[in-house]
Request: fold
Amino acid sequence: MNKRTHISLLSSGLILSSTLLLSACGQKGPLYLPEKKPVSPAATTAPTAPTPPASVEKTQQP
Reply:
């Protein structure tokens, strides 16, 4: 294989792989970042204390 053929194959492979990588994202249309939704006050309430399980059996100590 001469040098010109080798360079031609490398450039063809680079163009093909670039095309495949760019088309592989699956997003149709222009890419965009999703808008941030404002956080509602109800979602930022303080966490409640954990409740004990309903079926806790007490063991007798001698």
Remarks:
- The helical segments are 3-23.
- The mean pLDDT is 76.
- The CA atoms of residues 38 and 44 lie 11 Å apart.
- The chain is about 35% helix and 0% strand.
